Amino acid sequence: xxxxxxxxxxxxxxxxxxxxxxxxxxxxxxxxxxxxxxxxxxxxxxxxxxxxxxxxxxxxxxxxxxxxxxxxxxxxxxxxxxxxxxxxxxxxxxxxxxxxxxxxxxxxxxxxxxxxxxxxxxxxxxxxxxxxxxxxxxxxxxxxxxxxxxxxxxxxxxxxxxxxxxxxxxxxxxxxxxxxxxxxxxxxxxxxxxxxxxxxxxxxxxxxxxxxxxxxxxxxxxxxxxxxxxxxxxxxxxxxxxxxxxxxxxxxxxxxxxxxxxxxxxxxxxxxxxxxxxxxxxxxxxxxxxxxxxxxxxxxxxxxxxxxxxxxxxxxxxxxxxxxxxxxxxxxxxxxxxxxxxxxxxxxxxxxxxxxxxxxxxxxxxxxxxxxxxxxxxxxxxxxxxxxxxxxxxxxxxxxxxxxxxxxxxxxxxxxxxxxxxxxxxxxxxxxxxxxxxxxxxxxxxxxxxxxxxxxxxxxxxxxxxxxxxxxxxxxxxxxxxxxxxxxxxxxxxxxxxxxxxxxxxxxxxxxxxxxxxxxxxxxxxxxxxxxxxxxxxxxxxxxxxxxxxxxxxxxxxxxxxxxxxxxxxxxxxxxxxxxxxxxxxxxxxxxxxxxxxxxxxxxxxxxxxxxxxxxxxxxxxxxxxxxxxxxxxxxxxxxxxxxxxxxxxxxxxxxxxxxxxxxxxxxxxxxxxxxxxxxxxxxxxx
Length: 687
Fold this sequence. Notes:
alpha+beta
């Protein structure tokens, strides 16, 4: 089949139309995996021109969290592969759902398909380590009761993306790079509503005075554009990771668990998580003035002994995400609060791998042999009892040093500036057991899919993205046939929306509205201040009203995009503005239900539990207090949907998590369901 391409004149501009069976938006590990599986399933169905029916559309094939994020040894969380320790999908699912607000059917499916997708990556060339017998070696990660974690090094997700892209290229699937998604084209209403295509700006072809627009029409759309990392000022997401959430909200997708983002310590000059061996090496932590002077070993003011302080620095390695349940009793997440506390004073915080931790005048000097047993025995067994943190880190994980050297930072001589950063969205858009959204024929995979609940083991997002890509591809090919979209059934709706989009973009060139970069800065400052790891009900409500005012200002005045090249930033600013309203609305409504501190955020309350007697409210000078988790809310999931008629532009509802299927059919009936396609029909067969 020769792929259909046509050019139409709309609103005075040339618009190129492409026609596909499935368009995947995004180019990370989840997106590439979905493209590979789509091709393979189509080939199995005897579709010879499979490569011409699939397109990958992305704003940057080498951008995004999969390509540009990692940690000391970036974890991939899978079902256990130990030759002598049993594991099963049901136990895997129990771990994913342990903290609540997580659909049991999705958790079970992620467990069932975990090894299928892990070995798919191995076959694609990802070098996960084995022993001489071929066993894939495991270790424990955060929130992990077993040893399900493995790693291909600091760049695990990058290797995944690159290996899967090579498969996409080998299969001849077209990747449309440098495409800024400006609008999701919709048709119909109610249950008949569909996303029928994607309108984009070609950022490579756009010049100062004109821009190039394309429309990708498809019978099926897969959204895999990652999380909205640019919502936050203090963020470890790659710069430019904006997601597509605002556009998806406008198209009608329902979101879940937007309150449940994950935060943790990360470096800021080069954005990288300082988890695992970075902290297990036990570096010195100090703060300094804005110019780097007046160093202070601030942790020593809050821990009673060097033994306690140094052990908790170590524990911060595999207890890396900020966790309000690990604050009381001088536990490891108190460190995150203390880092934040220093930064609130206008000070900067650093890790120094050249020196061991430094105490105060009443503390003993650092002695690695006097650590708590959990820390000492780990380092002893790893052979990491060297004299300095950099020696210990080099012994345990030299690649963790190399990744910084590649980015112009020498940990042997340069202190590493850190902050508590936004790292991952556990929430996202609601999906079925086939990762289909509430709009038929539209699927959401990767970080855009809200499958994780309140807490997740480190690395489980990589497994979820691979399983989601598999499930979406399998369902599309087996349930939705071979149709190539020609757009004829919705041509009037499509042309009207494209015309309106062009008119809006053209008007921004004459607008007196706010500048796009200023809008993004305002959003980031507000979200980091009110919707990050420290939250307070009144402050969140005030921030929601400010976010609504900003979005309405943009809607009424437009954005001041003075050149065609600024249009891409303006598009991002507009949908990030709506996205920030959605996140704040979810936070405000959940706090109104009586939610407390959970997952990876702390809820401040004057009637709560003191964080530490020496951490005080800067206004009242009273000890700063936090509200404990309301565990009754573990049995509900907060859904959110765009609603122009609502005063806050969104409506929310509490729903119950779906349970995992308990039905188990014998082989013959299950085989019949599979042969006849019953497993793809809603309500039939087990998950």
